[in-house]
Amino acid sequence: MKNALRFTEQIVAAYTYTVAEQSLVDALHNSTLGHDEMWSGSIATIPHKRKDRDTLKTNIKKFLELAQDGYCYYCGFSFVSRNGERGYKGIQRDHIAPKSLYKQFTFQSRNLILACSKCNSSDYKGDTETVEKASAEYDKCDFNIIHPYLDKFSRHLQLQDDGLLKLVRKSRKGKATKKMFGLDETFEVTLRSVCLQFDKYQVNTLEELLLARISKVNISVHK
Ligand SMILES: [Zn+2]
Fold first, then answer.
1. Is residue 136 in a domain?
2. Residue 24 CA to ligand 1 centre (angstroms)
3. Domain contains 9
4. Among 19, 25, 28, 167, which is most exposed with the fewest C-beta within 10 angstroms?
């Protein structure tokens, strides 16, 4: 059974473009298209390249599904535990630095991850600014949240047994990440502590958890 909760320490490899994909990306970036047209434009805006662009986006998604192993990097929940039976249908490709603010990073590999529908919603991350100090070179930008590729999660936040996330050395990025994704909300903390129990007893539902705990109590009584 896959754990319901796991915080990915750091995504080590980003998607690598093939030569053909890179030339498509260059052509899109050199065009006059806006960020939304480049990323999700219809056949009217990019007539000959739309199919290739869509294939590229699918390839990126498949790559990230493996790289993230089924977990939302931001909230730590597995996509299945967050999005229910639909699982992967609810996940979204997220631009870490919003493409509305940083069009030049629309297809930058290290700017792309998969997020659950809650974390990527406009109530949470949405198009919120994540760059503290911009640079022409992506890796030289300073980010104000824990960056999936450039930072190590445990240097900023540590998961405790009670479901709370502890700030490491008063990390500013840890604090901002908690705020942006609502990680301190009562519902989130409760869900994390329940998921930790699921993982501890290797069960998938509350009913199974109850049964597992009862049988454990009975075993210890009969010892
Ligand atoms: Zn999430």
1. yes
2. 30
3. no
4. 19
Q: Please give the Cα distance from 176 to 31 (Å, whole number).
A: 35
Distance 55 CA to ligand 1 centre (A): 25
For the stretch 68-127, pLDDT in tens is: 998 999 999 988 888 776 656 678 899 999 999 999 999 999 999 999 989 999 999 999
Q: How far is the CA of 133 from the centre of ligand 1 (A)?
A: 25
Instruction: Give distance in angstroms: CA of 121 to centre of ligand 1.
Output: 10
For ligand 1, the distance from its centroid to the CA atom of residue 63, given in whole angstroms, is: 18
What is the DSSP annotation of 187-221? Answer: HHHHHHHHHHHHHHHT-SSHHHHHHHHHHHHHHHH
The domain total for the chain is: 1
Output the six-digit token pair for 138: 């992506």
Residue 178 alpha carbon to ligand 1 centre in Å = 11
Please indicate, yes or no, if residue 3 is contained in any of the structural domains.
Answer: no
Q: Which domain holds residue 124?
A: 19-222
Residue 220: which pLDDT band, with cuts at 50, 70 and 90? low
Residue-wise pLDDT for 171-200, tens only, equals: 999 999 999 999 999 999 999 999 899 889
Q: How many CB atoms lie within 10 A of CB 113?
A: 27
The CA 192 to ligand 1 mean position distance, Å, reads 12
How far away, in angstroms, is 22 Cα from ligand 1 center?
Answer: 29
C-alpha closest to that of 17 among 47, 55, 48, 43: 55
Beta bridge partners of 165: 159
